[in-house]
């Protein structure tokens, strides 16, 4: 009987949870759920100078926002350093590792010599088979693994296929530095083994690392996890993803007004597909996802696709749920804290009424917030450039007559206001748009808004008539 699947997500807390890391976490999470297994979380905080509490908090917050939970306690790599050193002692005792007394200057000279001879700059095994009695006094050694000198190391990768790396290209990597600190390569292997990780899913920039790490597994006689190295994400132009493409933190996407459901759906489609399905629920992702179906070529990040997908999710979300998401996200949106202060119970009710019309026109929560600004502004409204252009002399004269018509409407409903304005348009032999545009500009200060009769009802009779009056006085 095969072991239950155990995956892990292992970020370094030297910054935010970037979007590529978010996708790696998602793939690990989905594969674990799909197979009825577990996903563990390990914070690789061995770089003490760059690892920060703020970065750890940002990573945990980003995972929670994406809706990705993990099993068991979070493992912190640095705290496990004594265990990592213990494994090195075992390797030394078994003759699988050795002490290297080379100085930094000697290592530099070794690299330079290799470059001059057209070889890769690798450690040349100077101390590999020397007698310990030759050790120089007072020098603290680094500990290196004895890598195989001949043949090849083969990785049977679920995404990349069979990858063979000649052992002559793998030097005796350092396990413990001369100051006694374990290296990343060692720590990863020991932690994955001790945590019972069966499947390693990570970026294909770790493919060479996999071959090096296999030497440590073999040295300890441990089972090697099943490897899956997923292609990196590129920008829309095919170049490696950078900040200008969208290589931002997951928190930045929340601040840009994307919904976590849309982000998950977008990220899962970067490198993996299920037929022609574009929109898929989390349950469908869990049911359909299999790591062997991830492609080998890099996927391209496309903001336009993400926006369109997000717009779909906003329209598909029921009003009550979207209202809650919007209010919860408001502090993270640009200018959101200022709007929070303005949201009196009366304004909240207006927002609730306006939401159906607002969400139809918005692709992000930022656009939703911008669309709702007309509810918060104080009279007299400041007009944007387009609204100013619309409200020329003729439009203001027309508004004066429309104002009189609306003053006469006692039953302030969508049907009653629409009926009155349409009757007025017909009496002037005008299309409704000729009246709706100036009305919209006067009521919202903008050229776009929800349906104009919805706006009249959301603002209420007194506020609507007051805003129109401000533009004709």
UniProtKB/TrEMBL annotation:
One of its GO terms (molecular function) is ATP binding. PROSITE patterns: AA_TRNA_LIGASE_I. It comes from the Bacteria. Residues 344-471 form the Aminoacyl-tRNA synthetase class I anticodon-binding domain. Its EC number is 6.1.1.17. The keyword Transferase does not apply. It is found in: Cytoplasm. GO terms for biological process: glutamyl-tRNA aminoacylation. Coiled coil: none annotated. A motif ('KMSKS' region) lies at residues 240-244. ATP binds at residue 243. GO terms for cellular component: cytosol. A motif ('HIGH' region) lies at residues 11-21. Keywords: Aminoacyl-tRNA synthetase, ATP-binding, Cytoplasm, Ligase, Nucleotide-binding, Protein biosynthesis. Residues 5-307 form the Glutamyl/glutaminyl-tRNA synthetase class Ib catalytic domain. It catalyses: tRNA(Glu) + L-glutamate + ATP = L-glutamyl-tRNA(Glu) + AMP + diphosphate. Belongs to the class-I aminoacyl-tRNA synthetase family. Glutamate--tRNA ligase type 1 subfamily. Catalyzes the attachment of glutamate to tRNA(Glu) in a two-step reaction: glutamate is first activated by ATP to form Glu-AMP and then transferred to the acceptor end of tRNA(Glu). PANTHER family: GLUTAMATE--TRNA LIGASE (PTHR43311), GLUTAMATE--TRNA LIGASE, MITOCHONDRIAL-RELATED (PTHR43311:SF2). This is Glutamate--tRNA ligase.
